[in-house]
Specification:
The protein is of the alpha/beta class. Helix content is about 30%, strand content about 25%. It starts with a strand and ends with a strand.
Length: about 650
Amino acid sequence: MKLGVDYYPEQWPADRWATDAQMMAELGLTYVRLGEFAWSLLEPADGQFDFSWLERAMTILANENLKLIIGTPTAAPPPWLTHQVDIVQRNVDGLPWSPGSRRHACANNPDYRRYSQRIVTELLQRLGDHPAVAGWQIDNEFGCHATGRCYCDHCRAAFQVWLQTRYGSLDRLNQAWGTVFWSATYTEWAQIPLPRTAPAQHNPSLLLDFRRFASDSWVAYQRLQIDLVRRWSPNRPITHNYLGGNEDTCEIDYFDLAADLDFVSWDNYPQGSAGPHHVALNHDMMRGFKGRPYWVMEQQPGVVNWHPYNRPVPPHLVRLWTYQGLGHGAEAVVYFRWRAARYGQEQYHAGLLRQDGSLTGSYREVAHFLRDLAAVPPISRRPAKVAILIDYADWWALQIDPHQHDFSYLKVVTSIYQDLWAAGINVDVIRRSDSIDGYKVVIVPSPNLIDAAQALRWQQFVEQGGRLLVTFRAFVKEQSNIWSDQPLPAGIDTLLGVQVEDYLGLPPDMRGAARNASGGLSFPYWRWAELLKPTTAQPLLFYNQFYWRDQVAATQNKVGQGVAVYAGCWFEHLLPQTLWQALGLDELAVPFSLPNDVEAIAIDLADGGEGVLLLNHNAEPKTVHLHRPGVSLLLNLPPTTLITLQPRDVAILRYE
Ligand SMILES: [Zn+2]
């Protein structure tokens, strides 16, 4: 793994650049990303370009053998442009964003697209063959600040065209959307609205298609730039820096966005997450979006500036975060940013250097990490035997109609992931439609939309010995977001051997538990419960309370050589022991017990050895009892089965 920094030479005097470059090289960095917010300097007036300062900075960095990732500058259109041309998005009330920050332009605005193409073309023609350019980053954080969906008239026209392509005729659209409901039958394409603010909810089919359209709009906007890079700077890999997964950062389908990229990168600010398991999930999602190693293009280097409370970042945490990236398969970790800013919106955001140019503790932790890395053989994450299958359309459909206020697709995914993570199981997070060959266990969290081809693939997987878990709210709706006319889960009820008789959204004051057949074990659930009627499946768990007491909560169906498990309710730990056993997950877990928030990642060493990377995310020391002796590669000690990890410390262990 290589390290780098995000650097803004335009924010510092030019006579400082050589010092910065020397310091970066001395620290042992490989990559520098720059340029992604510099439009107003690169094109100071309409059609007048100045790339000389950027080229000088690039040459200075290149003289220190640093490799450069150049960001295209389109995330922050300059004031002259927004002043003379209307390129800004309209919000859900139809009102324009104010210019003056970033991400305020519309992907479907023809003028924004034209000006974007021009600045990117000029940049590429001037610097595309610079020998230090190691890659390109398109724009910056599409969709950040909830800007993934725009409600302007350009978008409305483009949406209507998008719908014509998808449905071909209005008859088909009216049928697919069920527009007979609330008198919404369309007789001209031009009648179809954007889902701006209305007295009551818009048609959920329109809402889902609008989300698909908005996502496609950014994929197409990105492709506009990618085509230019391929032409003018061939053979340089192209990426975009993704956001970590949250309910408000899922506006763009990252699988679709990844299809045109050479590699995915993401911006890892762990303090915005639900905990170290959530950061681990993000890493695994990033690896899954393209099915290959990825980068961290912005790594939190210390305190950030945008939370209500910007928590202190204690010593060793930046090194620990870097190790977590290494363990999950990151090819590079790039710290945001080299030096803290003296002006602008992020003055309170830390860098590896302070505003005055002095070194922070994080700088020393980066140096520490690089010393570590030089002392151990290369390690790689062992390929996963468990896959979680996710899909943006399911995510969106469940956001549109959560039915229960706290229902969150991401929380379902995260809860499943957390149980696997806590047992040290390496997991891949891949697309619902991806191949699942080679996995032993496949988990499909709440696949709300029906897909017959996928159901067939899962059936074959189980017949051939695979272990499948599907959770509640499965195969309820057709792809256009209308309810199936078949018994639920529609089209996989035979595979699962069960039908859903009723579904219940549970308010916070209704929590229950479900017991196993002997009554010896009981597992709490909340938020969602389905009353199951097994057809060929064997009941695994039964409800304990309420009027649905004794009805079935979870089942397993033996099919061919494998088993298909259905979880009908949202267990507080979504993989309670009974389901865990039905899926045979113990044989895939690390064979020793893990203290809370100690992460274990099974690794292979380059010289053929096997081992484990242990990360202590706690503020206290933790001791791990290994099942067999291991050598700690970072410490020169004899083999042992007892490893004590200091707070936020790591161990790379090779089994004897
Ligand atoms: Zn728009």
